[in-house]
Write a structure and sequence with these properties.
The complex is a heterodimer of chains A (about 100) and B (about 500). With about 100 residues, chain A is mainly alpha-helical. Chain A has a domain at about 5-45: Histone, subunit A, CATH 1.10.20. Chain A is built from three helices and two strands; from the N terminus they run H-H-H-E-E. Chain A has helices at about 5-15, 20-40, 75; strands at about 85, 85-90. Chain A has a two-stranded antiparallel ribbon. In chain A, a hairpin with a 2-residue loop joins strand 1 and strand 2. In chain A, helix 1 packs across helix 2 (about 20-40). The longest helix of chain A has 18 residues, at about 20-40. Chain A starts with a helix and ends in a 7-residue tail after the last strand. With about 500 residues, chain B is an alpha/beta fold. Chain B has a domain at about 5-260 and about 480-485: Amidase signature (AS) domain (Amidase signature (AS) enzymes, Alpha-Beta Complex), CATH 3.90.1300.10. Chain B has helices spanning about 10-15, 25-40, 50-65, 105-115, 160-170, 185-190, 225-235, 280-295, 310-325, 345-355, 355-370, 375-400, 420-425, 425-430, 435-440, 470-485; strands at about 45, 75-80, 115-120, 175-180, 195, 215-220, 265-270, 300, 405, 445-450, 460-465. In chain B, about 60% of the residues are buried. Chain B contains 16 helices and eleven strands. An eleven-stranded mixed sheet of chain B has the order 1-3-2-4-6-5-10-11-9-7-8, with helices on both faces. Chain B is globular, with a radius of gyration of 21 Å. Classes of the chains: A mainly alpha (about 100), B alpha/beta (about 500). The interface between A and B is large, with 52 and 73 residues.
Chain lengths: ~100, ~500
């Protein structure tokens, strides 16, 4: 399978990365090189093989459903590019 | 007085205890080396000199009263991927500009609890994506090693290139690193240092900037097998904050060092002999086999038929997980924000400017393979192939193999800005061909320096172990180290 420039632009839109026409053209070539490389997996017989979901055989650890952390609004908004009264500030999304 | 920066951690541990020197003296010696070398080698992206002195003084007080921890007063470098409270933690990406976490990663907390001293944060490939440390927002790291009679700059490997260079050039006694596809072992091999990626689940991933969560593991880079055992013992723990952290007590890895390897079964997988592999790599491998045979190990030929599919499967799984993990960098909660006419354009502008080319490539590949209609053809298939890769190893262990010996890398360190490697992303990816199988199967792997090539550059051998059997890797690794000796670059910097 290979991708065309329109697909690259669509995927970039899904990934929320702005690409110029020139970027998209260059990336199309690069992505096709990578997709061409991974195509060799088609040689492998995977009939009846289960996908690997965990490398370590351990059942998921569970903890009590209790509050273990909190009251850290200062810490949480500490690195925000824009914040006010413990809220993250973003451009207007609702008219 | 001897040059304190030439000591191993094991030697310094004794010297500090015997009060031959103080941690502050040791720390000052490294700070002065960093001051001299960093302009040329670019290993550190932030030097925390004041904090280092403060920690060293506290260690000296503890050492004086005789209640120092196992790493008391030992100066270390920390990869920029580890969250360190109030200190530069940016995964060497523009998108994490000025990020200083309000918390400390579990691995670094463990090191500080044992008395270690932080010298600063180490350069790396952006978000740990790269095999040459040329994708960092903070510029290329330079390998302290050069070819004989050459002044060409070489790469230290990646992504833990800053860690490897800092250790090799004596800018710290040991360093933390992380390995998703080979990012500890390949740079260790390129710089004549020892690097171990432990079993998935051995070190907590809490507070480490995530790249590919099912593959990422932290581990140390150090001068000797023993030093790496000392560091791993401290870094590893059982952590309730990471559900993939495994409930197995951390053993005393040092106890394995010096034990005879007589009777151990060492597997040699034929499939790690690649077309076009330089003769020197094959010779090094044969040399390693001979050393282990001389030490009494039993050498057995094994077959791992799915080896060649590990790298293509990795380039589906790792980008897919990365595209999800990196979705959090949106210009809202931390780091860089580039304005736009609405919120979507703000996201798009921020991520376009904040991510470098390699990161964008992988996010796009990941987004594509996970997009509607392609999931089965790519991600699901790759995870099935991953089952087969793991099965190859499981069969070897079932047949009584104790550890597997392979080359660490298909070549020695290459030049900075190598045109061939930059023209084709897949060529760069091939650097991890011998290391990536280990991540896909979640196993421990160690790279030990084993010799120099004809141009005088270091080469490493890799040992792969059973799950949670890092001890055997240290045991066998020590035999290789004893036979091969140690390797020190000639100082041209400073």
């Amino acid at each position: 399978m290979s991708v065309d420039t329109d697909t690259v632009k669509r995927v970039a839109r899904l990934a929320r990365i702005k690409v110029s026409e020139e970027d998209a053209t260059r990336m199309t070539g690069e992505l096709n090189t990578i997709l061409g490389f991974v195509e060799q997996l088609d040689e492998v017989n995977i009939d009846g093989v289960e996908p690997l979901t965990s490398v370590v055989e351990q059942s998921m650890k569970k903890r009590t459903d209790g509050i273990t952390d909190g009251n850290k609004a200062d810490d949480i908004t500490l690195n925000a590019p824009a914040s006010e009264d413990h809220f993250f500030m973003v451009p207007k999304v609702v008219e | 007085m001897t040059d304190l920066t030439k000591l191993t951690i094991a030697e310094a541990r004794k010297g500090l205890k015997d009060k031959d020197y103080t941690s502050l003296e040791l720390t000052e010696a490294f700070l002065s080396n960093i001051e001299e070398a960093n302009k040329q080698l670019n290993a550190y992206v932030a030097v925390t000199a004041d904090k280092a002195r403060e920690m060293a003084k506290a260690s000296d007080a503890k050492l004086a009263s005789g209640d120092g921890g196992v790493l008391e007063g030992i100066p270390l470098g920390i990869k920029d991927l580890f969250a360190t409270k109030g200190v530069h933690t940016q995964a060497c990406s523009h998108i994490l500009d000025s990020f200083k976490p309000a918390y400390e990663s579990t691995v670094t907390s463990n090191l500080w609890a044992d008395g270690a001293v932080m010298l600063g944060k180490l350069n790396m490939d952006e978000f740990a994506m790269g095999s040459s440390n040329e994708t960092s927002y903070y510029g290329d790291v330079i390998n302290p090693w050069r070819k004989k009679n050459s002044n060409q700059d070489l790469v230290p490997g990646g992504s833990s290139g800053g860690s490897a260079t800092a250790v090799a050039a004596r800018l710290c006694m040991g360093a933390t690193a992380t390995d998703t596809g080979g990012s500890i072992r390949q740079p260790a091999a390129f710089t004549g240092t020892v690097g171990i990626k432990p079993t998935y689940g051995r070190c907590s991933r809490w507070g480490i900037v995530a790249f590919a969560s099912s593959l990422d593991q932290a581990g140390p880079i150090a001068h000797t097998v023993r030093d790496s055992a000392i560091l791993l013992k401290s870094m590893a723990s059982i952590d309730p904050k990471d559900t993939t952290s495994v409930d197995i007590e951390v053993p005393d890895y040092e106890a394995a060092i010096g034990k005879s390897v007589k009777g151990l079964k060492i597997g040699i997988p034929a499939e790690y002999r690649m077309d076009g592999m330089p003769d020197e790599i094959e010779e090094l491998w044969q040399q390693g086999i001979a050393w282990l045979k001389d030490a009494g190990a039993e050498i057995v030929e094994i077959s791992m038929p799915h080896t060649k599919y590990a790298l293509p499967a990795y380039y589906i799984v790792a980008p897919a997980e990365a595209s999800s993990n990196l979705a959090r960098y949106d210009g809202v909660r931390y780091g860089l924000r580039v304005p736009g006419k609405d919120i979507v354009e703000m996201y798009e502008n921020t991520r376009a400017e904040g991510f470098g080319d390699e990161v964008k490539r992988r996010v796009l590949i990941g987004t594509y393979v996970l997009s509607a209609g392609y999931y089965d053809a790519y991600y699901l298939k790759a995870q099935k192939v991953r089952t087969l890769i793991k099965r190859d190893f499981d069969l070897a262990w079932a047949n009584g193999v104790d550890a597997i010996l392979t080359p660490a890398t298909p070549s020695a360190a290459f030049g900075v800005a190598d045109q061939d490697l930059h023209a084709d992303p897949v060529k760069m990816y091939l650097n991890d061909i011998f290391t990536v199988t280990v991540n896909m199967a979640g196993l421990p792997g160690i790279s030990v320096p084993a010799g120099l090539d004809k141009e005088g550059l270091p080469l490493g051998l890799q040992l792969i172990g059973k799950p949670f059997d890092e001890a055997t890797l240290f045991q066998v690794g020590q035999v290789i180290e004893d036979a091969a000796g140690s390797f020190e670059p000639e100082q041209w910097w400073g």
